[in-house]
Amino acid sequence: MRTSLLVKVLHARRQLRRREFWSPARVAAHQERALRGLREYASTASPFYRALHRGLGAAPLAELPVMTK
């Protein structure tokens, strides 16, 4: 096994172990930031999502259009 890969895996494991003790409020805040980042990336990288979500940047997830398939 490559040493650099092992170091990366151990670092990721340490980061994840710390999250086991997060409060529910901190988990919710982390999820909100991650979702916001994902939505920004999708709008930037995909013309389809940019058009579909136009004007809905701040809308809650439940208010986004439902997509099938």
Describe this structure in words.
The chain is an all-alpha fold. It has a domain at 23-56. The protein is built from three helices and no strands. It has helices at residues 3-19, 24-45, 47-52. The longest helix is centred in the middle third of the chain and has 22 residues, at 24-45. The relative contact order is 0.07.
Lay out the secondary structure.
Elements: H1 3-19, H2 24-45, H3 47-52
Q: Which features would summarize this protein structure in a list?
A:
single chain; flat
Structural class: mainly alpha
Mean pLDDT comes to 89
Report the C-alpha radius of gyration, rounded: 17 Å
Q: Number of helical segments?
A: 3
Distance between the termini: 40 Å
Helix content range: 55-70%
Instruction: Describe the global form.
Output: flat
Unreliable segments (pLDDT under 50, ≥5 consecutive)?
A: none
| Strand segment count | 0
Largest sheet: none
What's the order of the H and E elements? HHH
- Strand composition percent: under 5%
